[in-house]
User: Fold these one by one.
Assistant:
Number 1:
Amino acid sequence: MRQWLIDIRTGKGLSQKAVCDYAQISQPTYWEYEHGETTPTPPKAKMIGRLLGFDWTRFYDDEVKDA
């Protein structure tokens, strides 16, 4: 689970739907991102990072730690 992603989103007062609308992705897909089931493509990671205010490469740091 990417608790850090959930914490950033909720800390900004945004719903999953708001992030999905901005990044043009489905809610189930975003849920998978938050729960670590899948990792967004770099363009989607950049959009989400820009909206939420974090370095988009953080998504990929998780993969390195889990390997």
Note: The chain has a mean pLDDT of 93.
Number 2:
Amino acid sequence: MIKYVISAIITLVSINTLACEGHDHAKNESKKIEKCSDLQCVREKFDQITPKLVALIIERTKLQEEVADIKLGKNVGKALDEKRASEVVQKAKELARKDGASEEVVAIVGEVFEKMVAESAKYQQKYMDNKVNK
């Protein structure tokens, strides 16, 4: 499931499929990327991406609760699995490379996923602690 979420985030973040109303676009025929000619157009594309990213983060958080419940059922008291966290970050970077991202963008993807995994582990641990202390 995490592979699907990572792939979806990378796909959604790609501006290639976004279009703006009422703006002229220059097409790069080799990649079919519509480029904006002004700042407002680019901002509209960002505005189209944001709700999709938020929805995926919420979906991922709900999955963290499922993971926490499973761990609690197996008497695992620690949310963070460092090996798994590293695997998630590496898979995200591999997907970015596979999608043709530059190494600079791959590094950004890595940093974003490191932060997301760390925050997810904090959320998951708090969720687990709250369930145990009820």
Note: The beta strands are 25-28, 33-36.
Number 3:
Amino acid sequence: MAGTRGTIVVILDLQRLSETPVSDDPFEHLIVPGFLAKADVDNINADYPMLGKPGSFPVSAAPSGPGFKAVLDELRSTAFASVLETKFHVDLAGKPTMATVRDRCRRQDGKIHRDSGGKLVTVLVYLNASWNADGGRLRLLRDAENIDNYATEVPPEAGTLRAFPCTENAWHGHKPFEGQRRTIQFNWVRSRRYLIREQLRHRLSSAIKLKFA
């Protein structure tokens, strides 16, 4: 049962996801507040990898508990993939998946970027309490130059999901923020070769960050 310790089942709200319309301004995306219930967010945060450092890390970078592992299992499920396949008209069957986590944010993080062409779909799940800061709110941008030229802004509040296909115009970023900003990033990628390369890159990067950051 969600919200209990021991054997934990996290309930992704696939119905809410299915009922949320896809926006195409400035590019195709979904924003789903309440995708995770508060009790599930509490379980995930209780078992979140204790990184304590900024940067993006593979989920294997630090030990985690059953609440965190439960949400990863559900993000990897065919039921979740099936909803996003329908929403974005993309074939995810048999595609490799990759998960990374963030715990803390530096002021230099959040620069305007688009995700690698090796990725098919990006999913972000936020795990922070109510967000009052001006910075750290992800902006979906109309160009690659101006952080203020945005169509929508997403506060990284607990249980919110944001998903989008990794297209050439999927520019995003956020204004500077320093402090805790917990995010799970989950991707379907185009090939196992790309996955292996990214896993090696993340492992090397995380080892350096954990040692010197």
Note: Helices lie at 14-19, 38-46, 66-75, 78-88, 192-212.
